[in-house]
Amino acid sequence: MRNERLRALLLERGESLDKLAEAVGVDPKTVERWITTGRIPYRKHRFDVASFFGVDESYIWPDALGRDEVAAVSHSEVVQVWPHRWAVGRDTWERFFSQAEREIGALVYSGMFMAEDLGVRRLFADRARAGVRIRLLLGDPDSRNVAERGEAEGIDEGMAAKVRNAIVLFGKLVAEPNVELRLHDTVLYNSIYRADDQLLVNTHIYGVMANNAPVFHLRKISGGAMASTYMESFERVWEGATPYEGPQR
What we know:
Blueprint: H1 4-13, H2 17-24, H3 28-36, H4 43-53, H5 57-60, H6 67-76, E1 78-82, H7 90-98, E2 103-107, H8 112-115, H9 118-129, E3 133-139, H10 144-153, H11 158-171, E4 179-184, E5 190-195, E6 198-203, E7 215-219, H12 226-240, E8 242-243
Parallel strand pairs: 2-3, 3-4
Antiparallel strand pairs: 1-7, 2-5, 4-8, 5-6, 6-7
Helix pairs in contact: 2-3
């Protein structure tokens, strides 16, 4: 069976068989066979091809890794675990975001611990001016899900108030290049923080404030499924969120 995804990537990116073959270190006829016969390359070549296009190898060859292999690779994506968000040092957050070269993202309801930190806001502004795309997803303070989260954490209307404060503080960044802010009304099962291919995932637990819930540090590895799952979730929320245009006058 032909590998239509690989063929489509070549066409979409305007690349040739020869250029891909040179980048991967194989003969052009080998690349042609990968497309026309659906032959699955060695793992090193799959990784090199995926890197060439900037996609995950599982997109090009979804059947390349068995269930056990995917589980093993996914396990390797876990870098570190903290029992509580408050246990993640500020220097860790700063180091996490400052190393981003392509993208910084945050999917939260308020993210007040960052919003009220002038150093973090300055870091985001600096990275944006350096060409890094900044995408911030905050909760819609008038949404039912924000209200229910406030009830679950025992702060009731305090959650919506925190979100409104965060919108004001983060909203000042929208004037910077490459910074986008959107409001969402989804159920937030986890807060997701992204720096390129790394994630800090703050789980949400009923009756427990996010600051007291665990945090997982994940690093995306080709063939793994954990980091990709959270990244895809971020994208789904982003697509359905409402762009923030600034305070209403």
